[in-house]
C-alpha cells in the first residue's frame, strides 16, 4: 500500500524534475546554436534520472519485501506454535496475508487469524523503510540529473539512447516469453519424469492418473490414447471437414466470384474465425452432439454416448474453415497469372485449369496451411473440453467419446489439486509434448511457405 | 491461293470505361506471319487477346464489333471459348511452362481435349510437337525433368510446342522474344519462319527489325487505332501514313 | 483441318461433358461456402433463440448465482473488463515498442532473428500453453493471487503481444521510405523521425491489429482455466487482485450446470460476448477504412 503511494510520489517528482530542468535549460539559451539540445530534452533527461533508478529500487524492494515480512512474522511470538512442515507454513502465511489486507476474509486455519496482526505491522514497517529508500534514490538521481543541465550537454542523444534501450527491452519480451514457456514446461515435466518413465508415458496405452501411486505408477500414465484422441479429432475428423470446405471456398472466392461477391462473402466467412472457442464448444455440446447421438442410435448403435469425437471434431473443423480458406487463398494468389493464362489459352476450362495447373502449383503452400491448421486444431481446448469427453480409449468409432491432450491438461489442473503430485505434473508433460509438436509443425510450415513464395518471385 | 483466316470488323475493346481499341478492321491470312507493331500501350496486345477471347478472363473487359474465324463469329453465343482457344493457340511474353515435367507440359493440351486415345499416341504427339518446335534434340533424354529447369529460350520453345500439340489453326504470339537473349531470339524467329507453312501466325512485337525479319504482313497500331496495314516490305519501305513513317524512322516509340 | 474436328458428334459430346464438369465444380465451390455460412447462421440462430429471452436488466446487472433466475453477467463482464485493461496496458506498449525496434532500429544480427522466430512461433503456440506458463510462473513462482484479473491479464498480454508486434510491423513497413527521408533531410534524428512521423502514420494499422488481438483475448477461455479464473463470484471484483471470472468462463461454467434453466443464461451470455466482439471488430474495420492511407 505504502509502496504504491511512493510510486506515485516518484512519478510526481519526475514531473517536477522535468519542468525544473526544462526551465533551467531555457535560461541557458542565449541564441541560435548556443545549446546542443532543446530544453525539453533536458527535461526528459532529468525525469529519466529521477524515475528509472527509483523504479529499479522499488522493484528490488518489492521482490525482497515478502521474504522480510514472512521472516519477521515467523520470528514473532504468535508464530511459536507453528507447524514444522513447509507446505502448511506457506499455506498459513498466505492466508494471514489475505486476512491482513482484508479483515473480513474467511479463515480456514485459526492460527492465521492470530498472525494477521504481526503480519500487518511487519508490512507497515518494511513498507516504510522501502518507501524511504526509493525516495532517497529518486532524489539522488534528480540531484545528479540537475548538475547535467548545461549548454553543451547532449541531452537529446542521452535520452534517445535510453529510448533505444527501452525498445530493445520490449523486443526481448518475446524471447523471454518463449524462454519462460520452455523453462517452465521442461522444469515441471522434468519433475514428472523423475517418477514416471518417459518411455512408459509416450508408449503406454493405459491412462488413469486418478489411481496413480505406489510402485507401478508408470503404468497409469500411458498417454497414447490421449495422443490418438487428439490426432483423431484434430487432425482427422476436423480436417475432413475443414480441408474440403475451406479449399473449395477459397477456390470459389478467388477463381469464380465477382469482386463484389467476394467482398461480401469473405468477411462473412471470417466471422467464423472470430467466434470464441467456448461458443463453439457450447454449440457442439448443446446441438451437434445430441444430433450425432441420435444419428448413431438411428443407425443401430447401442447406447451411443452424448459426447463424441465426431461432434467435437466436426465443430472444430468448421472453426478452422476460414483459416484453411485464407491460407489456400494466399497460396493460389501466389501462383502467377501467367500459369492460368497459359492453361486457358490452350482451351482448358476454368476447373481443368484449377485442378491440373493451379492446385498442383499451389500445393506446397496449401500443405503448409493445412499443417498450421492441424497445429491449431490439436491445441484447441474448449471444444474438446465441452464436447469430446474424458474417456481415454483407443477407438476408431467416431461416435465414441474420446479424450485429448488438451482436455486432460484442463482436467488435471482444475479442481482439487495438490501441486507437485505426479498427477498435476503430468499436465506439464502433456503440455510439453503439445508444445513440441505444434512448434515442429509451425516451423516446417513456415519454412515451406517461405520457400514456396520465393519460388514464384 | 492465300485464304483469309480471321476477319475483324469495327472492333472496339473497353477496359471498364477506358477504350483500348477503337474501330479496328483487319483481315489476317492463312499460311503467313502477320506482325502487329506500334508504341507500347497502343493496344496491339489487347487486340491480339481479343482474337482468342482471352480478354474474357479479365473482369471488366468488353469487346464489340465482329471477329470471324473461318467465317464463324468468335463472339457468338454458340461459340465455345474452350474450343476456340484450342483452335487459336497463344504464346505469351514471358515463357510460362507449367510447374510440371517437359512431357506433361506438352501432354496437357491433348489430354484435356481428348485428342489422343492411348499412351502411344500421346508419346507420338509429344515427340512431333517437340520436333516441330525444334526442341526435341535438346530434351529427348530428359522428358521427365521439370519444364521450369530449361533455359529461357528453351522454355519459350516448350510453350510453342505446347501450343502446337493441340494442332491449332492460328498461333498468337505476344512479344514472344522480349524476355530472351539475342541468340534465343534468333532461334525462335527461325522457328516462326518454319511454322508459318502450317499455321496462320500473328505476332505482336515491339521490335521493328523483328517484324521486318519474320513477317509477311505488318499492321501498325497507334493509340488503339489501326493506322496502316499492308505487305511488310511496303510498310517498311514506303509507308503510306505519316505516323507510320515517323515510327519506323524512329522519331518516336 | 479447320473446325470440322470440333464438330464431330463425338467432339461435341466431349465438350458438353467438360462444360458440365465445369458447372459441377463451380457449384461445389459455391456450396462449400454456403454450407460454411449456413453453419454460422445455425449457430447464431440457436443462440439467439435460446438466449434472447434471458436478456433482461436483472441478467445484465447481476452476478453469478446458483439460482438461474437471479444469475447475471455483470460480475463476469467486470472481470473481463479488468482483465482486458491489464492486457491492454501491458501488451500495447510492449508490442508497439517491440515492433518499432524490430522494424526501424534492429541491426541485422543472429539474435534479432531469434526474436523474430520467437514472435512468429508465439503467435501460433496453443493458448493453453500460455495458461501453463501463467500457472507455473505467475502463480507458483511469483506468488501472485490466483483467479485474479492481474494474472489473467498478464497471461493474455503475453499471448496478445505477438499479434500486436506482427500487425505493428506490417503497418510500419507500409509507411513509405520517402517520409523518413523527408524528416531526416530537415535534420531530425532517427528517433525523432520514427516517433514524430512514422509511428503516427502507422498508428491506425497498429490500432486495428491491437483491437483484433484484444478481441481474441476477450474470447479466450483455456489459458484462464489454467490459472483458476473459474471462481464462483457472487460480487463483482473490486480490483485487479480480487478473485474473479470472465465472460467466456462464465459461459463455460454455466454450460456445465445440470439445471436446464441455465441453458438460457449460457446462450444469453454468449449473445453478450458476441455483441462485444462484434463491436470491437466493427471498430477495427471502421478504423481501417477511415484512416488507412494507401501510398
UniProtKB/TrEMBL annotation, chain A:
The keyword Acetylation does not apply. It is found in: Cell inner membrane; Cell membrane. Its main location: membrane. The chain crosses the membrane at residues 6-25, 46-64, 126-146, 166-187, 226-247, 268-289, 309-328, 357-378, 427-449. One of its GO terms (biological process) is phosphate ion transport. It holds the Pfam family BPD_transp_1. It is a multi-pass membrane protein. Residues 228-445 form the ABC transmembrane type-1 domain. One of its GO terms (molecular function) is phosphate transmembrane transporter activity. GO terms for cellular component: plasma membrane. Keywords: Cell inner membrane, Cell membrane, Membrane, Phosphate transport, Transmembrane, Transmembrane helix, Transport. Signal peptide: none annotated. It comes from the Bacteria. Part of the binding-protein-dependent transport system for phosphate; probably responsible for the translocation of the substrate across the membrane. NCBIfam families: phosphate_pstC (TIGR02138). Belongs to the binding-protein-dependent transport system permease family. CysTW subfamily. This is Phosphate transport system permease protein.
Automatic annotation (TrEMBL), chain B:
Gene3D superfamilies: P-loop containing nucleotide triphosphate hydrolases. Residues 6-248 form the ABC transporter domain. It comes from the Bacteria. Keywords: ATP-binding, Nucleotide-binding, Phosphate transport, Transport. InterPro entries: AAA+_ATPase, ABC_transporter-like_ATP-bd, ABC_transporter-like_CS, P-loop_NTPase, PstB-like. One of its GO terms (biological process) is phosphate ion transmembrane transport. GO terms for molecular function: ATP binding; ATP hydrolysis activity; phosphate transmembrane transporter activity. GO terms for cellular component: membrane. SMART domains: AAA. This is Phosphate import ATP-binding protein PstB. It comes from Novosphingobium endophyticum. The gene is pstB.
Automatic annotation (TrEMBL), chain C:
GO terms for cellular component: plasma membrane. InterPro entries: DUF3333 (IPR024573), MetI-like (IPR000515), MetI-like_sf (IPR035906), Phosphate_PstA (IPR005672). PROSITE patterns: ABC_TM1 (PS50928). Keywords: Cell membrane, Membrane, Transmembrane, Transmembrane helix, Transport. It comes from Novosphingobium endophyticum. It is found in: Cell inner membrane; Cell membrane. The chain crosses the membrane at residues 27-48, 81-102, 122-144, 150-172, 193-215, 268-287. This is Phosphate transport system permease protein PstA. GO terms for molecular function: phosphate transmembrane transporter activity. The keyword Transport applies. GO terms for biological process: phosphate ion transmembrane transport. Belongs to the binding-protein-dependent transport system permease family. CysTW subfamily. Residues 77-284 form the ABC transmembrane type-1 domain. Its main location: membrane. It is a multi-pass membrane protein.
